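## Example pair
The file below holds two records. Each record gives the amino-acid sequence first, followed by its structure token line.
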Amino acid sequence: MTSDFVNSVIPQTALSVAGLTDYIRLLLEQDEHLRQVWVVGEVSSANHHRSGLFFTLQDPDGTAGIKCVAWNGQLAKLAQIPVPGEQIIILGSLRVYPQRGEYQLSVWQAFPAGAGLQALRYQQLKNRLLAEGLFDPERKRSLPLHPQTIAVITSPTAAAWGDIQKTLKHRYPGLHILFSPATVQGEQAPESIVKAIERVEKDGRAQVIILARGGGAVEELACFNDERVVRSLANCSIPVITGIGHQRDESLADLAADVCAHTPTAAAEIVVPALGELYTQHRQRVAVLQEVMQYSVDTAQNKLQVLQNRLRHLRLDRQVKQEVEKLAWKRQQLIQATKRRSQQASQHLEMLRQKLATLDPKAVLQRGYAVVRQENGAIARSVAELAVGDELLIQLGQGEAKVKVTEVQE
């Protein structure tokens, strides 16, 4: 009777425990959504085992929980190690364990949730931009010493805009201030700031840019950690100073800017010097120069006095007088020697003149002798060279005469 009842109630298709478990495993592990699933929750317990870290992730109100495991091979790769009481986001896949009839998440990656996630994203972006060199000190440019045109980027309704105007006019009257309005809070802020920077660059008049906001909560300042804003600042052709108004953490915009200040007012104070301070510094430099010049004059006078005293001790005037006397004596010797040599030369010249005079043919002619030349110009030396009728040229001491031979005697 009992056997008939069992056979009639239990069908032939009844599954074994293993069959049912395997069916559940196939449903869960083959589901595309469960092969790679993100889960947010709070770590309620965590136990380190030699094979990995086992912990439970549950909703904050404790209404649901799921067992998780991060194997040792994956544990070192996690961005956030699960710690009881902390909110995390995990990426994993669902696994079913038939022996225990349980399922759990095999964790591939874990991140901090909430503010921790924002901090992680901030750090990851910072590291990536840092690796690209966007924050390198070598990229920083010096601000102009005396800019005449300054561009200000901030919200037109922000108190920062009024503070900057007041500070600039007080410190350096006569400046030209260009205002490029932008939204500095909310989802539209990054694009608005980038466009404001582009307007200033396109205008081309500004020599420096102030990007400012009067502080706020961390979430309100998120636009200054936006990659678009950071790259726009890093690539801007005009030097940029930020005054975002936060004291604790630097934004990525601060790191990309050429100079950063903690408040809008401080940025305005840095970007231009105070004329009153410049005048005071000028007077101080003038006083220092006067002191230096007076010191130089006093030092030169002291050196001159020392040299004068040394000259007095050396008695250079006496030495000069002795040298002048030596020169006068040598001059007299030179004159006498020159006269003596001149006389000797004159005497020698007279002797030579006399010798020449005795050898001069004209001198012989002056004593009554004559030179007889034939018609061909040759000197007649013998009557044998002459014939009656020849014309001869007689050269006397004074003049010449032509004669004709009328008789030849040997």
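Second record, same layout:
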Amino acid sequence: MSPLSAPAGIRGTRGTRLAAVVVGLCWMVVLFDGLDLFLYGAVLPGMLDDPDLGLTPGRAGDLGSYATFGMLLGALSAGTLTDRAGRKSVIIGCTVVFSLASALCAAAPTLGVFGLARFLAGLGLGGLLPTTITLVAEYAPRGRSNLMIGLLMTAHQAGGILAACLGLWVVEPFGWRSAFWIGVAPLVIAVPLVAKFLPESLGFLIARGRTDEARRLARHYEVELPAAAHAPTAPPGRWSALAALFRDGRLPQTVLFWGASFGGLLLVYGVSTWLPTMMRGQGYELGSALSFLIVINLGGIVGMLVAGRTADRFGAARVAAVWFGCTALGIYLLGVHMPLALTYAVVFLTGLWLFSAQTMVYATVAGRSTTENRATAVGWTSGMGRFGAVFGPWLGGRLVDGDAEGYGFTVFAVTALLATVLMALTGAHRTDG
């Protein structure tokens, strides 16, 4: 592999402190990303019960897909833009977009306006995740890239827990709109902090020939420049970074990554949107159903840390394949009405495997990409996966609308099995990704 083929990592104690700053700030914005994403599923039962809206399960599935379609476009465009304009500016721009869109959701007078707001939110949400993953991978201490990515993504699950708490504590007394007003918080909390303290990627600055800027940044944080400082390159053409994903025998692997991401995000967004409603359809009370959303995200937090640590030792692709297989079993069991304590245990384990399996897909792509096209590779893998994210909520809505919630668990389980096969075919025996 070339010197730029994987995140170089930052050496030394001060480098570790710098990585902590980057991970901490990115963790904060990803927390708000997760809050906004999971908020719709958390308040959906309240929206369905609101007679003024006239919302049906089928229409609710359509609305859920609007956001994920926006995320598709956001991920595809942000990846290419990030490799040209830089990581920091894209992170700030995406956070501003989904924060303002949350305000529009809260004030939406009609379902049409609400759907437009969710689409706009998706543009920001879809661009943020691959960009923060790229930046964290580039600042991670050497040999700890997968762990740092897993740590970053615990914020997404923490955002899901926060969303579920809002669904439990805010929606009933204050109405579902109040939860979306809270979603405006990153505009005044996160954006100023990121603008002031988040450094641009050293590898990006060097790859673009901005070596003086990179040296000033390295002196400021008292870290060494990446070893590839001698190899600046011009900004890639609009399509050259994308075309690189298909050259030199990379076509089969790229397609497999996209397919696995499709299946993984279908599961993440389908389950996140419809889990409370589907569990209520299985006979659980609304309070318990929303509690399942908290538990599955708690499992997700643990899973990110376990998967990241395990992937640094055995390879992210291998972990993703095994985790998807375990996810299939967990989701299938959720379709069986069990004692409540056992159900909570299965929900927790399903969350442990589900969310980190998809994250390890991203980690594999980041680890097998070059500095010049890493954001594009991760962005397009995320973007192609967003087709699954669009399809998942829509599919869940159709199943619930047809009183076929039980079949939803089987469909999601089969999807997880397919993702297992696809990740295994990418070369799960390798340990470089």
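Notes on the second record: Residues 1-8 have pLDDT under 50 and may be disordered. The CA atoms of residues 331 and 413 lie 6 Å apart.
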